[in-house]
## 1
Amino acid sequence: MNVRLLARCVFSPSLRMGGARIVALVRSVCRTLTRWQRLAYERRLLASLSDGQLHDIGISRAEALNEAGRPFWDDKA
């Protein structure tokens, strides 16, 4: 999300957002950013596993590369 757009949404007087709603919005954005960062990290780790390690967890190299190639915001959870 564009930071300027977020700032306009949060601080726009026409929206009349209370302090609690602003805090909830900021927390939600932080949770989403943290989740995306974690997904990117996990996908990089998955791509770095050896064939033996992938076999141990029951996935093929093609499946690992397919998952690792997904963008960080592509979250099916």
## 2
Amino acid sequence: MKSPKILSKSLQELQINDIVFRSELKQNCIAIEYDLTAHGKILRSLLRAIECWGDKAF
């Protein structure tokens, strides 16, 4: 399990590389939500295709 500091740094790098975007939800307390950008969704489908290929090839 990643420490909160490492997780935060990883999420920040994903934001910088336009893979995820960050939203602050203002409800009773402030919550942070991350979601995939358009580029992140393309990357997800590519990784799934590679995973399927790996399952069949090995």
## 3
Amino acid sequence: MCVAADHLDVHGNNRFRELCRLMQSVFHFEYHDKLEALKNSYMTFDLFCKPVAEDVEVWFGLAAWLGCQSN
């Protein structure tokens, strides 16, 4: 929208596009970090997921408590 309105010269357009790409990357990685934190928080409740090394004891303890067998 800003680039199409032709308010900036060619150099300004390129710098604005680069700024937009950098902001897109920042938002993407922040979202990804939050998503991974949520997945890790709820991993212990998902009996079908494969546990990661630090959560193995918690996962197997919960599975045993619920009477489930691990694969």
## 4
Amino acid sequence: MDVLNTVEAMEPVLPRPVYVVGAFVFGMIGHIVFRRGRKTERPLSSATGAQRDESRKQG
């Protein structure tokens, strides 16, 4: 009975299932995008507008 009372007392602290699923999906999308960005030879412009300077390319 003590465990049940403890779980009921923690109910407002425990995250909702939708929150857990959303965090998982958000993390997976971020991981996939990160891996794709690492694999591309010439990444697209970033949101900051910073681009690679091709004139500095060595070799």
